[in-house]
Sequence to fold (262 residues):
Amino acid sequence: MKPDYKNWMPKGMIFGTLFATMVFCALFAIFTFGSFISGAAKNTLNFIILAATLVGACVTAWMILMYRAFSYRGKRKMSMQIIKGIAKYVKLNEGEKGLDVGCGSGALTIACAKLNPDASFIGVDRWGKDYASFSKQLCESNAKSEGVKNTVFMQGNACKLDFADECFDSVTSNYVYHNISSKDRQELLLETLRVLKKGGTFAIHDIFSKTKYGDMQSFIKKLKAMGYKKVELIDTTQGKFMTHFEARWMALSGSALLVGIK
Fold:
């Protein structure tokens, strides 16, 4: 049995947008060739419906391209490249523990566990209706398919982790915090880093744009002032995980990897 890490662009969103586009297209045909209304009102309504149809078609096409790029079974396999790229930063010894925040389908948790078979890893996620295809059961099934036994998955809240201070030797996360409505996402990062032991490593990948996170360089200085030995923000849109062109059309500009040692 092969693991099923799903796709970061859910099929439900694609089909929903496609259905809406088809409805607008049908309405355009009805009002264009029908005699329900006429004159300026008809022209205005047709223009609005046509505009909605074109927007829907463009969004649907964009979603399909995103789905193909992220697919684990496709040619590009960007998701796999990102997951493996983050996991390489995690190197734990026997008996040490790692935490993956927002584990989704368990891909990053499992990747870290495979590279560190003598350590143990916990993946937490709220799962829920936004990504209904992801679940604790899916994570456990994927771990079993990969032959990984050093993982545990549980319900959790990235905004308030149910763990004591400094209890993990590594913390990871991938494309999680930008999805959380928050006035201060830097505080979300501090909440995740709160559970990291002194000497522990962290690797957090997200869209660290100024509109989403504010001044990250100031945040890095803040972490260093707090005693973090090493903090680095690595741009992942210049060939590390994706090209600059891919980042732009995928709306992933600002993607970067925040790595370091406490």
About this structure: The chain has a mean pLDDT of 94. Residues 177 and 185 are 7 Å apart (CA to CA). The chain has two domains: 11-70, 78-261. The first strand starts at residue 97 and ends at 101.
